[in-house]
Each structure stands twice: as structure tokens, then as C-alpha cells.
Request: fold
Amino acid sequence: MKEKEWHFFMMVQMGVDRIHHGFWKFSDPSHALYVPGSKYEYAIRDYYIYVDQKVGELLSHLDDETAVLVVSDHGAKAMVGASA
Reply:
């Protein structure tokens, strides 16, 4: 992003999707496989904090004339009946 002049720049951050699949059961007390006090209990929250910081770093390189869109293909919730 800093090495070239861009007219259009796009990136995909798949981690925010994938972390829910692997770690939801550690953070959701209503999940059938939830175990209180897991060392992964705050993994999703901590990952979002990390990604937010990285997005902030990217935004710090932009000027006020740059349009920024942050989009998602879906939200997040428990998947009852799906594989754990």
C-alpha cells in the first residue's frame, strides 16, 4: 500500500470469519461444548482488538479524500446443529 500510488486498493481479512468457526464454543456460555475458564475464552474479542488496531494503521496512511468501505458477507452467531 505504501510502495505504489493506488487508485483502487482492496484487501480481504479472512481471520474475522475463521476465528468464529474455531473458537465460538470457547466464548459462548450457551454453546453445548462450552467450558468455563478456557484459555481461549477471549480469543474472538482479542482478535477483533488486534484487527481493529491493524485497520487503524492502514487508515493512518490515507488522506481525507479517500473513500473507505468496510464490508462483511455475514454476521456471527452460534450455529446450533453445525459441527463443533
User: Anything to note?
Assistant: The mean pLDDT is 88. The two ends are 37 Å apart (CA to CA). Helices lie at 15-27, 43-59.
